[in-house]
Design brief:
The protein is mostly helical. The protein has four helices and no strands. The protein has two domains: 73 residues, no CATH class; 31 residues, no CATH class.
Length: 107
């Protein structure tokens, strides 16, 4: 019985170690993906020119994906999406503006 208990304990630890390795691997992949997203976003925000932003986004995505090319396919925007994008674009960029809006001030 002692040998069976020992084998079960070792098997349990091996399984736990394998699961920990899998979780570590998954966490590392997620961290790398987040780092890439942050880096790409920073590059996109480095210009105010919409065409340059799109070019940068496409170039960076192509590089990140290891693709030979990427394509942007425009889609029609529904009324609900338009309203949503208007709400997002009206969000203050500057903390002072945010504070003013929070105090009831209007732009």
């Amino acid at each position: 019985q002692d040998q069976i208990d020992l084998v079960e304990a070792v098997a349990e630890r091996v399984a736990l170690s394998a699961e920990n390795a899998r979780l570590f691997d998954e966490t590392s992949r997620r961290a790398e993906r987040e780092r890439m997203v942050t880096e790409i976003t920073s590059k996109i925000r480095s210009t105010n020119d919409p065409e340059a932003m799109i070019r940068t986004a496409l170039d960076e995505l192509r590089n990140a994906l290891g693709a030979t090319q990427v394509q942007l396919i425009p889609q029609a925007i529904s009324a609900s999406q338009k309203n949503q994008s208007e709400i997002i674009s009206s969000t203050p960029q500057d903390p002072a503006q945010k504070a003013q809006r929070g105090n009831g001030a209007k732009k």
